[in-house]
Amino acid sequence: MQEEAQIELNSLGRNIHSSLSDLVKELNTKVMQNAKGEKFITLFIARYNIVTRILTYINAGHNPPLLATENSVTLLRVGCTGLGMFDELNKVKEGVISIDPGSVILCYTDGVVEIENENEEEFGISSLKNTLRTNFKSDMETINNTIISDVIGYKGDMPYIDDIALFSCRIF
Predict the structure, then answer these.
(1) For the chain, does the N or the C end have fewer beta carbons within 10 angstroms?
(2) What pTM, to 2 d.p., does this model score?
């Protein structure tokens, strides 16, 4: 199914004039056809206009990416439920934001924020935000490595309970 989904996304994504909402609705239909309601997919998808500096995005049930600027860290929450949860996605909202030069977008899996320490306390979104704020001016490799190091240090001897993945980019 993963290869089929990749082919579908590639072919659907070639129509650059369609809205992200239409694309997400089409992807939901494909997931429902292939998974038959037994699985779902979370997804964050975005389109960035380098001239207007406008990011249009949909968060389809994924952990909300962080958008960090010199002065703030915001969660990119706008969107819809995960794909494959319902036959049709009737309410798909597109987030539209202006991006300041030098902003960082950080996407992560739930394993990053849900990892627990010896006291069964989660690392959490606030710790992730703090690490991003503290290292905002660093390059992406340093930011990612610092987050991973912080997560490993936080969990101590506790086992990993889920996968940990990061994707970050700086927009100039």
Answers:
(1) C
(2) 0.87
For helices 2-13 and 20-35, the axis angle rounded to 10 degrees is: 160
Instruction: For residue range 56-96, list pLDDT tens digits in order.
Output: 999 999 999 999 999 999 999 999 999 999 999 989 999 99
What are the two backbone dihedrals, phi and then psi, of residue 105, each rounded to the nearest 5 degrees? -110, 130
Tokens of 59: 């968060």
| Neighbour count for residue 123 (Cβ, 10 Å) | 21
Contacts of 21 (CB under 8 A, 6+ apart): 58, 92, 93, 94
Please give the Cα distance from 7 to 14 (Å, whole number).
11
Cα separation of 157 and 154, whole Å? Answer: 9
- Tokens encoding 76: 């990119």
